[in-house]
Amino acid sequence: MTHNCANSTTPDMRYPFDARGVAKRFRHAAIFGAFDSLHPGETMLFCNDHDPLPLLAQLKDRYGDGIEINYVAREPGQIVIDFTRK
Questions:
Q1: CATH of the domain at 74
Q2: What is d(CA 21, CA 13) in angstroms, rounded to the nearest whole number?
Q3: How far is CA 74 from CA 41, 54, 78, 79, in A?
Q4: How far apart are CA 31 and CA 59, in angstroms?
Q5: Torsional sign, CA 70, 84, 77, 3
Q6: What kind and span of H or E run contains 73?
Q7: Domain presence at residue 7
Q8: For the segment 15-59, what is each residue's pLDDT rounded down to a tens digit?
Q9: Into how many domains does the chain fold?
Q10: 71 within a domain of the structure (yes/no)
């Protein structure tokens, strides 16, 4: 399955965020900032080259029930996750 992580809104109104292009030291802050800019019901389509388990734990701690996390693809070298703001 191929996913487009371009820098525009997808046809289903998900906002792509490709973490692979963000310097590692800035990634989590950039992800939090991007998620904070979403309105309830909006989704960020997150792409990465590895499964971000520590990030997922931080997101759950920070946003609690205010975030829904769903894997779209979970293959070696290509992780795609929907982060939806509730």
A1: 3.30.110.40
A2: 21
A3: 23, 16, 6, 5
A4: 9
A5: positive
A6: strand 67-75
A7: no
A8: 999 999 999 999 999 999 999 999 999 999 999 999 999 999 999
A9: 1
A10: yes
> Is 3 a domain residue?
no
Give the rounded distance of the alpha carbon of 26 from its chain centre.
Answer: 14
Structure token digits, residue 73 = 């693809």
In a domain, 59, yes or no: yes
Are 66 and 84 a contacting pair, CB within 8 Å? no
Structure-block tokens of residue 47: 């792409």
| pTM of the model as a whole | 0.86
pLDDT in tens, 12-25: 789 999 999 999 99
pLDDT range class, residue 3, cuts 50, 70, 90: low
